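Same chain as my last thread, 109 residues:
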Amino acid sequence: MKDNPSYGLTAEVTEGSRRTEPGKTLKFDVGYVIKNTDQSSKTEVKVQKKSGADYEDMTGWTITGNDSVHGEGIQNISVTIPQNAAAGTYRLNFTLENRTVLYNIVVAK
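reply #2:
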């Protein structure tokens, strides 16, 4: 009998800061662990903007470096804020299969 696949994920900003501006690029070291499977997985990055008590999905953000991976290691993922991004609080959702790490940023103009 084979164990079920398991996943681990961390995200740490290595360039930029939580308080940022349109047009800036934030760089993250995203650590991953994929066990009990030979299949590769891709870290998805979804961006949401805070709207009252809720968050709404955003498009137009450039995400690079989130290629398919397997085993254990660190990915260097870059997130570029669009020039037309409105000021406000945003949440970056880094997801690998059933694991999600949230990272909040504030975009100021």
